[in-house]
Amino acid sequence: MKPMKITEIRCHLMQAGAPPQTGWTATGQSVLATSRNWLFVTVATDAGLVGTGEGSGWPRVVATAVEDLAHLLVGQAAGDIERLWQRMRVALMGHGQTGVVGMGAVNAIDMALWDLKAQALGVPLFELLGGQTRPAVAYYVHAATPQAGREAVACGVRAVKVGGIGDVVDRAFAMREAVGPDVDLMCDLHGPPWLAPADAVAIGRALEPLKLLFLEEPVAADDLRGWRLVRDKVALPLAGGERLATLQDFRPFLDEGLLDVLQPDTGRFGGLTQMKKLAGIAEAHAVALAPHSGSLGPVAEVAAVHLLTAIPNALILERMQPDWEGRQHILSGGVQASAGLLAAPAAIGLGLTLNTDFIARHPSVRNTGLPSGGWNAGTENETTYVQARRPRARIDRSKP
After folding, report:
1. What DSSP element (H or E) covers 108?
2. Among 106, 137, 264, 338, which is disulfide-ready with 308 (CB 3.0 to 4.6 Å)?
3. Which of 232, 243, 206 lies closest to 385 in space, CA to CA?
């Protein structure tokens, strides 16, 4: 590969529309309904090649971080991906533990560098990650109602997820009845409000007969005592990690065996460089990867499919289907869904081209919001981070 140097790093920030439904639509409204932003980043080189990446973790703020990092990268050799990753990580240190915001900026640039290197070598990106372990990657969708679940299965989808904590046990049982035993079912309990550990255990136990593919985020990521309790008391595979930013963040979950499925976010976990490392560590613990993708745009989805095509311990990928109508105009190329599977593009690099004109016509308006529908009746204005469920007699099933 001929050496090439970075000449410019540009941000392309946009306001994205809401998906028609998420797993929480049945009981309220997620923040995706009002404050969804997508940030795409392009890295240009003196060889004429342009790499594309995506960063999340609060995209409006991440865009500023990308712009601030750019001067440390312009003029550097674009092929030195690991060295530049370390350079960015060190540059963040002066700001403390910047979490998914800092790693979101690193993620966007790192992803673009992998795209560039694969383009320069004339191969699809998955070839740089070890080649194909599988020709296509399974995905799951959110379903707010049993009818939505049936419609997804009719389109070939083989896994669906219900979400939210209001009447979640009843809704999960209704979904299982709708889609049948041959379709995988997942349940996401993430906050706000986050469940108290004892409530998470009660709900988890009530869900055990459904043989879930996994129970996602039953307690907050920072509640290690809660994770230990759920691990000890609930006989279901546990998944989590979408709010974590570094390999070190995942250490207690892996060291203590608290997770069966890791869900790093493909837009805010430091890019493919760190995702590939995490996959190797997870493999050593017999743990699978199922990257989070619910709030992300199409570039991160393509990168996730390349990664899951290559690694041995890929489980499944999250997908919003259907999504906002504008999503299909963001890029040319990308992935196509068929029979519940996504195949990585055979074109070189990520295999996509951004439609920057369309992105520019949808400028960012806001990128923060509050969900609705998760708190106990009459307490929503309290907006608490953690809340014990009441009345407790109805915690697991509304109908005896």
Report:
1. helix 99-121
2. 137
3. 243
Place of tokens 């979640």: 168
Q: Which of 190, 306, 329, 362 is catalytic?
A: 190
Burial of residue 82, with CB atoms counted within 10 A of its CB: 0-12 exposed, 13-18 middle, 19 or more buried = exposed
Rounded average pLDDT over 145-168 = 96
pTM score over 0.90: yes
Same domain, yes or no: 187 and 236: yes
Three-state DSSP class for 20?
coil
* Same-domain check for residues 343 and 254: yes
CA-closest candidate to residue 151, choices 178, 171, 177: 178
> If DSSP codes are grouped into helix, strand and coil, which group holds residue 139?
strand
Buried b (16+ CB within 10 A) or exposed e, 328-363: eebbeebbebeebbbbbbebbbbbbebbeeebeebe
- Alpha-carbon span 42 to 50, nearest angstrom: 6
Same domain, 227 and 330: yes
Which of the residues 142, 292, 306, 362 is marked catalytic?
Answer: 292
Question: In the prediction, which pLDDT does 399 show?
Answer: 53
Residue 257 makes CB contacts below 8 A (sequence gap 6+) with 231, 285
Q: Is 95 a catalytic residue?
A: no
Q: Is the peptide bond before 322 cis (omega within 30 degrees of 0)?
A: yes
Distance CA 40, CA 56 (A): 9
Q: How far apart are CA 45 and CA 297, in angstroms?
A: 24
pLDDT at residue 28, as a whole number: 74
275 and 172 in one domain? Answer: yes
Tokens representing residue 385 in the block: 């981070």
Query: Per-residue pLDDT tens for 2-26?
Result: 899 999 999 999 999 999 888 777 7
182 and 290 inside one domain? yes
* Contact between residue 247 and residue 220 where contact means Cβ atoms under 8 Å apart: no
Query: How far, in whole angstroms, is CA 238 from its chain's centroid?
Result: 16
Domain residue limits at 278? 127-350
CA dist., res. 323 & res. 81, Å (int): 32
